[in-house]
Amino acid sequence: MSRKYKFRDNDQLYFVSFAVVGWIDLFIRTEYKDILLKSFQYCREHKGLELYAYCIMTSHVHLIIGSQKEPMANIMRDLKRHTSEQLHKAIQQHPGESRKEWMLQLLQQAGSQNSNNRGFQLWRQDNRPIELRDAHRLYQKLNYIHRNPVAAGFVEKEEDWLYSSARNYFGLKGLIEVTLLEPQVVTVT
């Protein structure tokens, strides 16, 4: 990972994106998305992850996160390792996964090309954490995260994407709890 993209200051919030190798559209199945949500929740409860925003797209994830307890690099490492193992197992065991052989072959191929892995690689190596030091950048990234499914043409309104914290920000029941940022500043641009 480049020196430009690292978790440097644990007192800051970060915008983080990470994607499945080969940009595989893995998250078209509810079971796979639920593995991510459970992992986010676990990290909130046991590792001190502060989750402010998230959006699970078909091939990638966007987050705004922080932590006052554990170093962010450690949380992301553990989150990606755990979800990688759980998702790999879920793909292998899914009785209706029509793309199983193709996906497993791509994951194995990616893993064999990277000495940091044992047998397979699910996530791309980069997280690209960006410090959100000012309100302008923070709310620009928050809006970007929530507008992502709209820009992709999946939904017309941000709050209609079930696997996003936009629901929480629009006063609807979200799938998991997030710490809301100041609502008076959150505007759609």
Give an account of the 3D structure.
- The chain is α+β, with helices and mostly antiparallel strands and 189 residues long.
- It has a single domain (14-169), classed as 2-Layer Sandwich (Alpha-Beta Plaits).
- It is 39% helix and 13% strand.
- It contains 5 helices and 4 strands.
- The chain has helices at residues 30-46, 72-93, 100-112, 135-151, 166-169; strands at residues 14-19, 49-56, 60-67, 130-131.
- A 4-stranded antiparallel β-sheet has the order 2-3-1-4, sandwiched between helices.
- The longest helix has 22 residues, at 72-93.
- The chain is globular, with a radius of gyration of 16 Å.
> Strands of the largest sheet, in order across it?
2-3-1-4
**Roughly how many Å apart are the termini?**
31 Å
* Strand elements, count: 4
Radius of gyration, in angstroms, nearest whole number: 16 Å
Which fold does the CATH topology refer to? Alpha-Beta Plaits
Helix residue percentage: 25-40%
Low-confidence residue ranges: 184-189
Shape annotation:
globular
- Major sheet summary line: 4 strands, antiparallel
SSE string, helices as H and strands as E = EHEEHHEHH
Name the beta content range.
5-15%
CATH architecture: 2-Layer Sandwich
Summing up helix and strand content along with how strands pair, one would put the structural category as alpha+beta
What would you give as the CATH superfamily? Transposase IS200-like
- How many domain modules? 1
Oligomeric status of the shown chains?
Answer: single chain
Q: What is the count of helical runs?
A: 5
CATH class placement: Alpha Beta
